[in-house]
Amino acid sequence: MWAVVAFVLAAVMIGAGIAQRTVFQGPDAQTAQFDVEEGVPYVLVDGGAMTAFAGPQTLRVQGEGELFAAYGRTADLEAWLADAEYAHVTADDAGAISTATVEPVVPEPTESAAADDAADEDSAEEDVVPGRNPVGSDLWLDEYQQTDLLIAPLQLPAEMSVLVAADGTEPAPTDLSVSWPIENSTPWAGPLIVGGAILMAVGLFLYVLGIRHVRRSRGPRRKGLPLPATEPIDIAVDDPDKGVISATPTRRTIGRGRRSLVAVPVVAASALVLGGCSADAWPEFGSTPTPSPTASVIVPEGQQAPAVTRPQAERILERVAATVAEADEAHDPDLAATRLEGAPLAERETLYTLQDAIDDREGLPAIPTTPLEVVLPQATDGWPRTFLAVVNDPEGTAATTMFLTQQDPWSDYKLSYYSYLEADTTLPDLAPVYVGATQVQPDSPFLIMEPQELSAAYADVINNGEDSEYAPMFELDEDQFRIGVAADRQKRLDEFNETAESTGELTFSTEPGAEEPAALATLESGAIVAVTIEEIDTVKPTDDDAVIKLDNNPTVQTLTGVDESSEGFSTVYVDQLFFYVPGQGSSEKIRLLGYVSNILDAKVIE
């Protein structure tokens, strides 16, 4: 009786467990299909539509040819699409998804622009600008590109959106859908199946015991007739007439044989029912691990989102380095201008001119990309936008600090400043990359010196040393750049005076650079400020009959295009300098963080 009860309960438990994993298990995902109008070049899937349901999203795009998808901040994608027609997929508060076509925003023309448009009306059709290809933009946090079918696993918050396109010219694919997983785990399916298998084994054991009990509890048997005594049989005798009687196996042997035959189906059944149980068929025991507390930075109220993420900054640096390396190889200033601006571009333009004329002219070091130690993005929703990057030298020498700037949503980031940090330089405390830093305006009164005055003030310090009126504001004792410039100038002046003191003169001067300063705030209310200065070396004759020859100076000879001059020459070097400028009320002084110097130009004095 108990064996039958165990069998019934085992069947119920196993059946219930299997049913939870089969007929009673619901779908594992829900999908939303987007109805997109045909003919538009872009589709913007808003963050509200991507997060219409909870859980990670899987974007599915199907079409012909190359398919493209990228995600980023919603404000950035809308800015990139401001001048283009696109389909906008949104969701209301109830989760209902709808699609609308957004027309491009065309700025109102001025009177002069209207006149120009009227004059060029006949040729307007010939000047149609082709669609803008979204592939490779620095604005995306990540992008995907596949052929015919694109499936992208995503996990986006509500403030991020997805851009879908072909190449910006061809119509965007219209077969779009997003799916979200549904929680359909069956934590008791595993225990029910295992419990049923155990109970079935118990039932089999009880069944065997019941049969044994019935056999032993039968009534008394009739006593048989006495059997004659038997003699032992000698099986060693080789006699064909001798019979051999085999002994009947005992009950214990029979019992063991039956148990072994019964155990096989029990084990097999357990293996079959357990083979389909995955991890979500079992309950989770134990508490959820709690992350250990870490130091946090309070985001100032009203501060905007950081311009880039760390992976985005790494990808931008790699693109900049690859383009500049290609330009260095080809001596192509136009290619370099796609990723460089300001002093970094000007010094490479000069370098390419020298390399084309001088065979053994060495190039500039490549733009480093790894290991990226520091990323400090500007916190802004507008343009231009900037971020600071510090890359350590893998060989343990000077690290490189850089400012990279993006002028508008459609432009690539360009390297606007770079320098090499001194070996013992300690950077001030900076905000984490997920917070970002505010940009300090050139005329900011919150620093002990306005960024726009820093270049002229430091140029005066280089010219006059400790006698400069600005010298008390700078940390001069640890300024290796100023010390090196002074030593180099004195050495060159001594060498010049040995041979040409009576017929010529060599003078040095320093002027502020033409570039606008770049500055991002630090956590101590100070700022990291990058500026340029120009060092000008002037050599000219003091005797009316004397001339300055360039026999041993191919650099100046190449840049000026002459071998000698009776008026003299001036050589210009550009210095890119990074400073830490403390905030108002601080007892600290302005500290030089890093520098780099390269030749910029040479001219004949007129």
Automatic annotation (TrEMBL):
Superkingdom field: Bacteria
Region named Disordered: 104-132
Acidic residues bias spans: 117-128
Keywords in alphabetical order: Membrane, Transferase, Transmembrane, Transmembrane helix
InterPro entries reported in the protein's UniProt record: DUF8094
Keyword field contains Transmembrane: yes
Protein name (record): Glycosyl transferase
